[in-house]
Amino acid sequence: MNKERYDELVQIVVDGPLHPPKKLVEDFYKWQSRLMLARFLANERYQQYTPALELMEYTLDKDMRNFDGKGSYEEYLDHKVSLLSDLGVLHWNLYKDGEKALKYLSESLELAESVDYEFSLSNRGDIWNKKLKVLEQLGDEEKVLEAVRKKFIEIERESTFDTNSYLYYGNLNLAQITQSRCDWKKAVENLKEALNYLELHDHERESVDELWEKRDEDYERTYREMEKFIDREVIWSI
User: 187 burial class (0-12, 13-18, 19+ CB within 10 angstroms)?
Assistant: First the structure.
C-alpha cells in the first residue's frame, strides 16, 4: 500500500454511496484514518473487500503490533480488537482461509478478554460467535459444542433476561447445530434459552412465551417462528 493507491481508494469511498466527509479518511499517515477508510471499503455498500484487507494488514503491520505510547491506549486497544476481528472475517469470506481466520479471531478475542474495557467497536460475544461460525463451516461441529460447553462453565449466570452475548450466541449456535441435525425439540429448547438473553420488547417476549407453551404441537414450526426474533441490534451488558 502506498499513498498514490491510498488516494485512489479515498476517492472511491468519498464518491461512493455513503459519501463520508473526506477529512475522515484522507490522511494516509494516520492509522485511524486508514482504518476508517478500510471499514468503508469493507462495507456492503462498497464491497471493496480485497483493498480493505490489504489496507488493514498494512496498518496492522505498520502501526498496530504494539502500542507506541502516543494518544489513548484505550482507543488503540478498541481499534486493534476490531481490526483483528475484521481481518479474520475477511480472510474467511474472501479466501475460506480457516487457519488465518481463526488465528486473527482468536487474537482478537484473547486481547478483548484480557481487559475490562467496554469497547465501542466490538463485542466479545460477537467475536466469539464469528470464531464458532468459522469452525462450524469448517465442519468442526464438535469443537463448537465443546467451546460452548467450556464457555458456559466459565460464565456466572446472572439474571434470566440479562443481555449476555456469550450465553445468547452459545445457545444460538447449539440451536442451529441441533436444527441442522433435525432434532427440532432440542433446537427449540436451545433457541428459547438463547432468546432469554436477548433484549425483546414486552409484546415480543409474550409472543415467544406463547410459542413456547404450544411447542409440542409442531417443534419445527415453533423453531421457525422463534427464529424471526434473532436478527436485531442489541446493546449487550456483557
Answer: buried
Single pTM value for the model: 0.91
Contact between residue 38 and residue 21 where contact means Cβ atoms under 8 Å apart: no
- The gap from C-alpha 176 to its chain's centroid, in whole angstroms, comes to 17
Closest CA to 141 of 168, 179, 112: 179
pLDDT tens digit string along 12-47? 999 999 999 999 999 999 999 999 999 999 999 999
User: For 103-139, how does the pLDDT look when each residue is reduced to its tens digit (9 = 90+)?
Assistant: 999 999 999 999 988 899 999 999 999 999 999 999 9
